[in-house]
Amino acid sequence: MTGPVASRPSGLEALRAPVRRRPLVSLTPLIDVVFILLVFFMLATSFLDWRVIGLDTPRRAAPAAMTSDDSRTLRIDVGTHGLRLDGQAATLEEIARLVTTRLEETPDQRVLVRPAPGVSLQRAVTVLDRLAALGVSAMALSRPGAAAAEE
After folding, report:
1. Cβ neighbours, 10 Å, residue 87
2. Which of the pair, 57 or 115, is modelled with greater confidence?
3. Residue 22 in domain
4. Are 139 and 54 in contact (CB under 8 A)?
């Protein structure tokens, strides 16, 4: 009886559960999945298109000097009730046409944008964005209230 009967456990040994080896968990598939997710989200994410409007920061006396001494400078006043171009009421489209005409004659046309007190920043940025799209490279933005102080 040395064959199959001898290899069977007898008594209490038969009731014990066999010793199981714990499977080894490999980190390689986990790292692969995380890397694939990272690449997916990087490619699927839409990054914001930040546009920059270049402005000359005027010195304290620069806005007054630009408007009174230099007749080539266009002055755009952004008010709560509309826009004014060199003191005359105008729409943004009229200003765009005049600026385009001036840029054909003088490529370095200077423009001063003066928001009135209480005007939302978005209105001033809309004007600046339109000027930048037209190709104006010399823009200056005066402080709110500087228009009232000069007049």
Report:
1. 9
2. 115
3. no
4. yes
Query: 106 Cβ partners below 8 Å, 6+ apart?
Result: 72
At residue 69 the predicted structure's pLDDT band, cuts being 50, 70 and 90, is very low
Per-residue pLDDT reduced to its tens digit, 21-52: 887 888 899 999 999 999 998 888 877 666 66
Mean pLDDT, the chain, rounded, equals 77
Residue 71 sits in a domain of what CATH number? 3.30.420.270
pTM: 0.53
- Number of domain units in the chain: 1
**18-56 core/surface letters (b: 16 or more CB in 10 A; e: else):** eeeeeeeeeeeeeeeeeeeeeeeeeeeeeeeeeeeeeee
Contact 109, 138 (CB under 8 A): yes
Question: For residue 55, is it within any domain?
Answer: no
73: region left, alpha or beta (phi > 0 left; psi from -120 to 50 alpha) = beta
To 10 degrees, the CA torsion angle through 139, 144, 146, 149? 160
Best CA proximity match to 62, nearest among 113, 102, 108:
113
Half-sphere exposure of 38 (CA within 13 A, CB side): 6
Share of the chain above pLDDT 90, in %: 7
